[in-house]
């Protein structure tokens, strides 16, 4: 594997699962692959889980790590071409990226949707430049449109907790005070579409995901109906795609609560975290024994390590 | 040792001293204990000595380290229960803590008194939640009411520099432009009470430490009288406990100066640092040969390593 | 080598080149020298290349590293002597430096010119205190007046790309929206003066470098004339030394462009980065095949490692 940007980068879903379960079992067995190799983790946006889990994964592999918080440790980077750079930004990605690539063997990069320009976001303007200019493999630690390390961990978690071969998995929109990117939802759907699970997406009207991501997945606008017989409830807020970046609803009747969970097939509750308690989900649900958000987060380390193993094996 | 929050967590003072002197002599002898083990250091408040000394101690033990500056690298964390999280804080400690615990083997956490609510501070609201939810050992890198790594280093330093079996140790309040927590003073008294040293605390009226900490230790309101025949002068500012978090005095007549040091038994001068020169202590005293603030700070690495050794041995 | 502050600290230019080319060839061959050794990197000013390249160099040597961003991770440090510290700065360099020195084996420090006081800057007030009080070797990661790791990398780069024994090297001032320190220019001249290259410096009137640095190096005020037959064009902005810290010109006729590069002997284009495109240099020049800014930046890791090797060998 050269880069890890979307589900299309893995050889196959089954192979990815095999590697993940192997590194979970044997986290320190592959340090020869990472010896004297360095990963730089670049954050255009702040991070807790992604930073710690990816850094831990790299250390499990025997790698050295360096973390760079752009706009904090470093500086503002220009990303537009042909600009006369006499403003705030002292450096262009065209220099910064290949230079960083000289100091490491793998780059991880996080760059969220900015909601200023749908075209910029959906072309993955920042991550695409990293892939083009880094000269070393690039791992998305969440781009503008996808969060593949999260979705890969979601898949591993469902595989670990599923009680039947083909579980019903429901992605439900939930309210939130801020406008959040579609990356987690897009990416979750993209990965689930590669499985043979029964996938249902539920959200208020106006929150339809981008056509390329949702494809022909079933959308059910009645949340309660969607929950019926579900084995997994995956809650997530996202801002509107059609009214790009807008909050169309903060309707708390979409909060995942005990009453709705009672409609399911004793479903497990999932969320990528961080989660707004009593807005996205009630204390009762997230504190219940069916909540698997912590083991789900723990699998972020596992899949980050699996990705690094697949990359290091081909260096 | 499971957690390190107060002097009560160590098996015995003598054992703690033995371990400290051993790791000081042999800093790299125990790396097998830390191999493939990771410590996450979480700072709700900024740090220089504590961060560097604890990280260095962990590396001496062969551990990997990851540093998280909450409110900077990460984000604001909610700590109240039952809140509808529609405000500034996107994540609750109830998720953040166990998730961080999944990515490491030991957590170090620094969370100062906020002086907003005495009950919150003196119940160690933040560190207590870490102990309860982390799932891995927790080391206090200074809580709201105690700074045990500092006090342990203070003890080691006094043992190294004492000229008699039972030295007279004086903790003196000193003026400061800001309202500082009582943690260092509380914790110093708590540790000294476990020794057979002669301990005297001196401060202006209104600066009495919390009853649980001061116990029946001698308080002398006349600073000069307290200094007589002292072998160690430990200076520190703290805000009032009774008038909680208030500055009652900035009286520079409490500054530790050469004239007062002349009253002592050629006492060593100690301070946890950072120190305000010519406010807490004069240049003349801190620059004198009797000032041991640098070796005292150096012992922060030693005791942090001793704590990690005791914890790792029981993992 | 004890400290690395200027070209005067290296045994000889030839030895420095030999060490650099050796560690470039064998980056992981000297990890026994760095085992259980720690480098603290202290940044009073932000950094991308310097931080990553120096940290990488230290890791290549098998060292542990800790990064401290003063004014961010830590706190404001007082540097004046005799001050009554009742203001913003809670700690003095007189304590901070020796304490940091207790937790590591080598200190790297970056502290730019502040342009408030020429005397403070040109006496290297901050770095000089580190050298005096650290108790361990100090590596300048850019001081107020010099950037020796950069100049050393510049030298290595010229040696790698030169087509003749004694190339003509031109340092040209270029416009910039901000007032930048003279450190890179000073230091470049200082190192080039140790070679037998033909060195020419070109800049508008009023931008003369400090006499100690420029010495008797040829200054040519006609930029185009300076470029004639040049083998290397090194572009850099700096603020005025005589009108200390002032911007006297933003004249875009000094921008390095294709027309001027055509006057040279097919010269390579160099810049220390970060660079303002279409202000300091046109896209056409920096994107041309003659631009060697990326390999030049890559050599920052090489020379930082060479410096650490020379220091560690004498610890």
From TrEMBL, chains A, B, C:
Using the record's annotation, list all stretches that form the Aspartate/ornithine carbamoyltransferase carbamoyl-P binding domain: 2-160
Q: Which Gene3D superfamilies match?
A: Aspartate/ornithine carbamoyltransferase (3.40.50.1370)
Q: What is its EC number?
A: 2.1.3.11
Q: Which InterPro entries match?
A: ArgF'-like, Asp/Orn_carbamoyltranf_P-bd, Asp/Orn_carbamoylTrfase, Asp/Orn_carbamoylTrfase_sf, Asp_carbamoyltransf_Asp/Orn-bd
Which GO terms of the molecular function aspect are on file? amino acid binding; ornithine carbamoyltransferase activity
Q: Its GO biological process terms?
A: citrulline biosynthetic process; L-arginine biosynthetic process via ornithine
Look up the record and name the pathway of this protein.
Amino-acid biosynthesis; L-arginine biosynthesis
Residues bound to carbamoyl phosphate are: 47-50, 75, 110, 147-150, 272-273, 300
The positions annotated for binding N(2)-succinyl-L-ornithine are 142, 176, 236, 276
Q: Which Pfam families match?
A: OTCace (PF00185), OTCace_N (PF02729)
Residue ranges annotated for the Aspartate/ornithine carbamoyltransferase Asp/Orn-binding domain, each copy included: 184-310
Look up the coiled coil feature and give its residue ranges: none
UniProt keyword Transferase, yes or no: yes
Catalytic reaction annotation: N(2)-succinyl-L-ornithine + carbamoyl phosphate = N(2)-succinyl-L-citrulline + phosphate + H(+)
Q: Which UniProt keywords apply?
A: Amino-acid biosynthesis, Arginine biosynthesis, Transferase
Q: Which family does it belong to?
A: Belongs to the aspartate/ornithine carbamoyltransferase superfamily. SOTCase family.
The record's section on HAMAP family has:
SOTCase (MF_02235)
Per UniProt, subunit arrangement is:
Homotrimer.
Which PANTHER family does the entry link to? ORNITHINE CARBAMOYLTRANSFERASE, MITOCHONDRIAL, ORNITHINE TRANSCARBAMYLASE, MITOCHONDRIAL
What task does this protein carry out?
A: Catalyzes the transfer of the carbamoyl group from carbamoyl phosphate to the delta-amino group of N(2)-succinyl-L-ornithine to produce N(2)-succinyl-L-citrulline. Is essential for arginine biosynthesis.
> Know the name of this protein?
N-succinylornithine carbamoyltransferase
Record organism: Maribellus comscasis
């Amino acid at each position: 594997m050269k880069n890890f940007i979307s589900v299309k980068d893995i050889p196959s879903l089954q192979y990815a699962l095999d590697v993940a379960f192997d590194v979970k079992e044997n986290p320190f067995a592959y340090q020869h692959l990472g010896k004297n190799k360095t990963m730089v983790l670049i954050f255009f946006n702040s991070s807790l889980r992604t930073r710690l889990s990816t850094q831990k994964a790299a250390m499990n592999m025997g790698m050295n790590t360096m973390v760079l918080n752009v706009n904090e440790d470093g500086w503002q980077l220009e990303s537009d071409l042909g600009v006369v750079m006499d403003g705030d930004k002292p450096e262009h990605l065209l220099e910064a990226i290949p230079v960083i690539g000289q100091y490491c063997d793998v780059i991880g990069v996080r760059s969220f949707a900015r909601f200023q320009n749908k075209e910029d976001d959906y072309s993955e303007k920042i991550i695409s430049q990293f892939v083009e200019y880094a000269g070393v493999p690039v791992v998305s630690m969440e781009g503008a449109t996808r969060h593949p390390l999260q979705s890969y961990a979601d898949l591993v978690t469902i595989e670990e907790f599923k009680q039947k071969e083909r579980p019903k998995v429901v992605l439900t929109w939930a309210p939130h005070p801020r406008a959040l990117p579609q990356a987690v939802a897009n990416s979750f759907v993209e990965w689930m579409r590669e499985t043979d699970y029964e996938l249902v997406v539920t959200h208020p009207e106006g929150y339809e995901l981008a056509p390329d991501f949702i494809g022909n997945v079933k959308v059910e606008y009645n949340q309660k109906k969607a929950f019926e017989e579900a084995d997994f409830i995956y809650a997530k807020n996202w801002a509107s795609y059609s009214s790009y970046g807008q909050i169309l609803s903060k309707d708390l009747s979409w909060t995942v609560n005990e009453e709705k969970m009672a409609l399911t097939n004793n479903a497990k509750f999932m969320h990528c975290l961080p989660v707004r308690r009593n807005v996205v989900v009630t204390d009762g649900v997230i504190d219940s024994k069916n909540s698997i958000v912590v083991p789900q987060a723990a699998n972020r380390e596992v899949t980050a390590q699996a990705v690094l193993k697949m990359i290091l094996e081909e260096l």
